[in-house]
């Protein structure tokens, strides 16, 4: 265990291996003036997979089917970036600063070589890490995300506010609108996903503050207005996945990403939106593990 970490008592283990995200202990490690909250599970052999999460998300917003599925074969680490959930500090207003914090956290754990899975905003952070610290990254999985300057990304703030109001008016979680289609399949998948997020009942994370949420929105807006990056410098294998009807980060961005990186491959899920990897979690986990173990 890294020096400076603290561990709570609740965990589901097989030998010394935590097997369930629902019961993975929340630990902390301090580096660069920030105390990062994180969880880890799965076998300790092989290259770890670090998960980078989405707008407004804390540790409890990862789909346990995706985390547990990947952790069946790989060492998985999830964490709260600076100023989010149980991590200390103030939330940066640029994706680049968030990437720097993520690298600080990864290196604090003593990890010298990782795979990255970035969902939505996390996928933006992962792209920056691959460019600034290429020797740290072996493979990238970029889901529900887009490149700097990508189509419609500057509209995430407007859509988020709109669907938050829709959620309040209909007494539903805004993610039902932001992440899933309004078809019967999409509505059903959204309800199932939101139910899975409530499976952890002990030691839940703190919700994101409004201040941090606002800072993240500013960072995504700036990302959407940036000049396109030269993605040809990302030489790692890249798996890009999304729903075919993502209205939050329009699906064309996923197509663009996979085309612009030298070693990209694309998976699109039918009748699915921004949360396509959660709607099709079984297929996604199978594809992701095959990609990581190739």
TrEMBL record:
Gene3D superfamilies for this protein: alpha/beta hydrolase
Keywords: Hydrolase
Pfam families documented for this protein: Abhydrolase_1
Start and end residues of each AB hydrolase-1 domain: 48-278
One term of GO molecular function: hydrolase activity
Protein name per Swiss-Prot or TrEMBL: Alpha/beta hydrolase
Species whose genome carries this gene: Streptomyces botrytidirepellens
């Amino acid at each position: 265990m890294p020096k400076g970490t603290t561990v709570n008592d609740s965990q589901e283990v097989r030998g010394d291996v935590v097997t369930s995200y629902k019961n993975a202990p929340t630990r902390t490690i301090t580096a660069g003036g920030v105390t990062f909250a994180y969880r880890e599970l799965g076998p300790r052999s092989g290259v770890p997979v670090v998960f980078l999460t989405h707008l407004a998300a804390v540790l409890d917003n990862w789909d346990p089917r995706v985390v547990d599925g990947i952790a069946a074969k790989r060492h998985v680490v999830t964490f709260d970036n600076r100023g989010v959930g149980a991590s200390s500090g103030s939330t940066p207003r640029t994706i680049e600063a968030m990437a720097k914090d993520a690298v600080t956290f990864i290196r604090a754990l003593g990890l010298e070589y990782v795979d990255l899975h970035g969902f939505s905003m996390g996928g933006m952070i992962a792209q920056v890490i691959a460019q600034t610290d290429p020797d740290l990254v072996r493979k990238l999985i970029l889901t529900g995300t887009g490149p700097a300057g990508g189509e419609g990304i500057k509209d995430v703030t407007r859509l988020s506010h709109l669907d938050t109001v829709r959620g309040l008016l209909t007494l539903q979680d805004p993610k039902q609108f932001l992440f899933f289609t309004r078809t019967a399949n999409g509505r059903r998948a959204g309800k199932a996903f939101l139910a899975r997020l409530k499976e952890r009942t002990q030691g839940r994370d703190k919700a994101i503050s409004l201040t941090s949420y606002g800072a993240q929105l500013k960072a995504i807006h700036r990302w959407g207005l940036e000049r396109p990056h030269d993605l040809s410098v990302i030489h790692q294998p890249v798996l890009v996945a999304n729903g075919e009807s993502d209205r939050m980060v329009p699906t064309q961005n996923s197509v663009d990403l996979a085309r612009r990186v030298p070693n990209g491959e694309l998976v699109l899920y039918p009748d699915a939106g921004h949360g396509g990897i959660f709607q099709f979690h079984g297929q996604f986990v199978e594809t992701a593990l095959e990609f990581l173990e190739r």
